[in-house]
């Protein structure tokens, strides 16, 4: 949970408890009997405070959103709505949208919104790579359900200089190709966007609908797409135009090296 989210939560709590205590206190001070109708001015106080707090937040973030929209437009990402951005940048189709990676808990579905970047590219040598701060069982099992790739795809990738991607775990199917692609320049770019990295995939597993509930889940590999899942929601992503552009540029830098990779003889 980031600082802005904590501050927002604390302000909302202060508004609720502040008006809930302030209004009855004033009523007692001026000699008005406290009845259930006291809820009316309390609710009005909540509404007014939320309204002005929302206006303050809008005034704070509006310049950042305008800067982001200008950057997206300059990149050719011109199809923009509330939850999706689509365009063509550096001769690659780019799609950014918001996804819910929440889980089912004791209190029902817990919504966790993240931003998903997707770039289409050509992957003639079927190079597949998965990067995460800590390895995900979800990613592991989704790949293991994708025969015949399972045995040759699920393997650890270790760079000759592990400090280049320190703190990240990698799985892939072609160690030599991946080491060639992840040179020091690319690794530096990945580390610059590591703080918001949830997971990144070159090629990913796509669930196939089972024929019946008794069938084992199956996966189909989609090798011609790179995905970067940002740990922030889309609205928070739009507050940092430079970081937004840096992520897209990094993904395209990677896929361009994948597209042009030629194994050494």
What does this structure look like?
By secondary structure, the protein is of the alpha+beta class. It folds into two domains: 3-61, no CATH class; 75-260, no CATH class. It has eight helices and ten strands. Strands 1-2-3-6-10-9-7-8 form an eight-stranded antiparallel β-sheet. A two-stranded antiparallel sheet has the order 4-5. α1 runs antiparallel to α2 (39-74), α2 packs across α8 and α6 runs antiparallel to α8 (241-260). It is elongated and about 90 Å long. 18% of the residues are buried. Residues 140-152 have low confidence and may be disordered.
What's the short story on this structure?
This protein has two domains: 3-61, no CATH class; 75-260, no CATH class. 43% of the residues lie in helices and 24% in strands.
N/C terminus separation: 49 Å
What is the total tally of β strands? 10
- The averaged pLDDT comes out at 79
Percent in strands:
15-25%
Structure classification: alpha+beta
Largest sheet: 8 strands, antiparallel
How many alpha or pi helices?
Answer: 8
Helix content: 40-55%
Helix-strand pattern: HHEEEEEEEHHEHHEEHH
Tell me the domain tally: 2
- Rg calc: 24 Å
Shape verdict:
elongated
Low-pLDDT regions: 140-152
Strand numbers in spatial order across the main sheet:
1-2-3-6-10-9-7-8
Short descriptors:
2 domains, 8 helices, elongated, 8-stranded antiparallel sheet
Task: Write the SSE topology.
Layout (H helix, E strand, L loop, with lengths): L2 H27 L9 H36 L4 E2 L3 E6 L2 E9 L2 E3 L2 E3 L2 E8 L8 E4 L4 H8 L5 H4 L15 E4 L2 H7 L2 H9 L4 E12 L9 E13 L3 H4 L3 H20 L5
Antiparallel strand pairs: 1-2, 2-3, 3-6, 4-5, 6-10, 7-8, 7-9, 9-10
Helix pairs in contact: 1-2, 2-8, 6-8
């Amino acid at each position: 949970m980031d600082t802005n989210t904590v501050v927002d939560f604390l302000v909302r709590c202060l508004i609720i408890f502040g008006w809930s205590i302030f209004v009855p206190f004033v009523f007692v001070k001026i000699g008005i009997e406290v009845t259930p109708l006291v809820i009316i001015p309390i609710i009005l106080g909540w509404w007014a405070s939320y309204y002005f707090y929302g206006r303050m937040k809008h005034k704070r973030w509006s310049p950042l959103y305008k800067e982001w929209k200008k950057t997206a437009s300059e990149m050719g990402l011109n199809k923009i709505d509330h939850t999706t951005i689509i365009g063509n940048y550096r001769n690659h189709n780019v799609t950014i949208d918001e996804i819910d990676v929440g889980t089912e808990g004791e209190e029902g579905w817990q919504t966790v919104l993240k931003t998903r970047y997707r770039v289409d590219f050509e992957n003639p040598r079927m190079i597949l790579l998965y990067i995460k701060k800590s390895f995900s069982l979800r990613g592991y099992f989704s790949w293991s359900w994708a025969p015949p790739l399972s045995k040759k795809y699920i393997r650890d990738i270790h760079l000759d200089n592990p400090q280049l991607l320190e703190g990240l775990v990698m799985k892939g199917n072609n160690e030599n190709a991946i080491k060639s692609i992840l040179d020091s320049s690319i690794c530096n770019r990945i580390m610059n966007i590591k703080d918001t990295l949830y997971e990144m995939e070159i090629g990913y597993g796509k669930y196939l609908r089972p024929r019946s509930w008794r069938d084992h889940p199956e996966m189909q590999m989609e090798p011609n797409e790179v995905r970067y899942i940002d740990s922030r929601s889309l609205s928070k992503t739009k507050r940092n135009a430079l970081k937004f552009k840096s992520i897209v540029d990094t993904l395209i830098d990677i896929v361009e090296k994948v597209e042009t990779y030629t194994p050494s003889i």
